[in-house]
Amino acid sequence: xxxxxIVGAQWGDEGKGKVVDVLTEKADVVARFQGGHNAGHTVVxxxxxxxxxxxxxxxxxxxxxCIIGNGVVIEPAALIDEMKGLKQRGxxxxxxxLISKNAHLIMPYHIAMDNARERVRGAxxxxxxxxxxxxxxxxxxxxxxxxxxxxxxPEVFREKIETNLGEINYLLKNRFRTKGxxxxxxxxxxxxxxxxxxxxxxxxxxxVNEMIEKKKKxxxxxxxxxxxxxxxxxxxxxxxxxxxxxxxxxxxxxGPTRISRVLGVVKAYTTRVGGGPFPTxxxxxxxxxxxxxxxxxxxxxxxxxxxxxxxFVGLRHAMRVNGLTGIAITKLDILDALPTIRxxxxxxxxxxxxxxxxxxxxxxxTSVPVYEEMEGWNESTVGIKRFEKLPKNAQKYIRRIEExxxxxVDMISTGQRRNELIVLRNxx
Length: 428
Ligand code: GDP
Ligand code: IMO
Ligand code: MG
Known about the structure:
Elements: E1 2-8, H1 16-24, E2 29-32, E3 41-45, E4 48-52, E5 65-68, E6 73-74, H2 76-88, E7 97-100, E8 104-105, H3 108-121, H4 133-142, H5 154-175, H6 183-197, E9 201-202, H7 204-213, E10 217-221, H8 247-250, E11 261-267, E12 270-272, H9 284-293, E13 306-308, E14 310-311, H10 312-322, E15 326-330, E16 340-349, E17 352-354, H11 361-366, E18 368-375, H12 392-405, E19 409-413, E20 421-423
Parallel strand pairs: 1-10, 1-11, 2-5, 2-10, 5-7, 6-8, 7-9, 11-15, 14-16, 15-19
Antiparallel strand pairs: 3-4, 12-13, 16-17, 16-18, 19-20
Helix pairs in contact: 3-4, 3-5, 5-6
The structure holds guanosine-5'-diphosphate, 6-O-phosphoryl inosine monophosphate and magnesium ion.
């Protein structure tokens, strides 16, 4: 049995796209299980850069089955655009992609609600990607959501849009003082999407489970990261789905007994985009240096990412709630020129030390990180492929992460490209 879940261990953008892409070489199937086109997963092949939003990062390899699971929320226009963009660059999406019948659809009014809610939040805004993710999951849980399968029952589809607009238009007009929507327009627009997507729609839960029975090698590709998870993240500054490993089970219809490994992707430092607490955030020049050197600008929205030191408090939490069997460290090369490197071992408020990630958002806002310093290596690690070839202090940094988290480092990424990688343990 070889089903490996790949999850982000921080606030997203850890380099999941690259990790999934390199692991796809030995996999048969790659499946997304949550989130939507709020995700931006970058894969660099030679001089070509691809950013995947909804389509699994495995699509760039030939003949790998890629699945968008039921736990994902799909904006059909965004998906069609992404398919088109890939096709224009010679990627065969047509023969390799399947979409779950019971994935929920992002509707135009979800996007309007997402932006309207953000506007009224003012200074306390979450800093969402504005893609309609939250309101779509709200409807899913409220049992008023519209699923992919509904696209193919026109009567039902139209009725659902009308019912939902009854409430949503009221809010948009009276509460948020903005324009409402007309059911007929949405209906016509989505009927056109339905025709374009029809050939991809499938019972993906049955297919994934059959693949597992047949001993195929499967990757479950997470989006966002543990600290953005709706249950385990820095609520309410989170996304609206289960981005932890458990989400792979509900988001694809696979039992926990079928999962063989959980690989956590850990950036060698920390970034966060959007609002919310970030204890190890670097302010001033050093933060800006990281942003420039690491190219830390959102792959989806282009927003500058906030940068900070590695945070063991957050990572121990990620280790626990995901049950990580290994980690992949990325962007080690971004630390190359630093004389000293800080790691956060606890948070402190007043005289109290916190070693476990606090649930109180206010505590996260008001506590300060307790750092330990490590010597840097002041040498390039770009493209190094063997652990022994890493500078001694870089090796120490990696071992320190292993020891603190009590989990093996399975992989170290030393650059954007596919072959800039150290593999310490195979996943399949
Ligand atoms: P994801 O959302 O987790 O897939 O990550 P993003 O693609 O949003 O952000 C990660 C960024 O770091 C992308 O630009 C990657 O190309 C880049 N990247 C990944 N691994 C490495 C690495 O080891 N070194 C460097 N320099 N860049 C990397
Ligand atoms: P990948 O998969 C980083 C953040 C947003 C915002 C919060 C809620 O590329 O790692 P949402 O639009 O989901 O309601 O926004 O979550 N966010 C991400 N941050 N990487 C992502 O995805 C993200 N997807 C959402 O910035 O703070
Ligand atoms: Mg990203």
